[in-house]
Specification:
alpha+beta; 7-stranded antiparallel beta sheet
Length: 129
């Protein structure tokens, strides 16, 4: 399976956590080598009454923010899997799901107990409208 296919499977969990109000945050981390781009932090945002995703690109010297639809955010993020990021972590109030590439570029998706007790307030406010 390609990175696009496996990441799409992982991103389905992101979309479900947004729908059921358990999404806390999504982080892309663990870069290959010393790169200028260190992390991408993803949080929900409401723009003109529509739930979207804010992508915060954390560089060594600066930060850049982009806002995309939920589906477009996946298309942007998948470009950074394997170049330069080796993992993505979805934090929800029910579980944490980790998408990880090893040195041979084999993909594993694992779940463990939740780190966050509260979902994104922006998401909860949006769902309670």
């Amino acid at each position: 399976m390609s990175f696009q296919e496996t990441f799409s499977k992982f991103y389905t969990k992101v979309k479900l956590s947004l729908e059921d109000g358990t999404f806390a945050k999504l982080t892309l981390a663990k870069t290959i080598g010393n790169t200028d781009l260190m992390n991408i932090y993803v949080r929900p945002i409401v723009e003109e009454g529509i739930l979207k995703m804010e992508l915060k690109f954390k560089f060594q010297q600066e930060e850049q923010v982009e806002i995309h639809s939920i589906d477009k955010a996946k298309d942007v993020l998948v470009q950074y899997i394997n170049n330069p990021f080796m993992s993505a972590i979805l934090f929800t109030t029910q579980f944490d799901s980790t998408y990880k590439l090893n040195k041979k570029r084999a993909v594993s998706i694992t779940e463990k107990g939740n780190t966050f007790g509260n979902a994104s307030e922006v998401l909860l406010d949006y769902l309670n409208q």
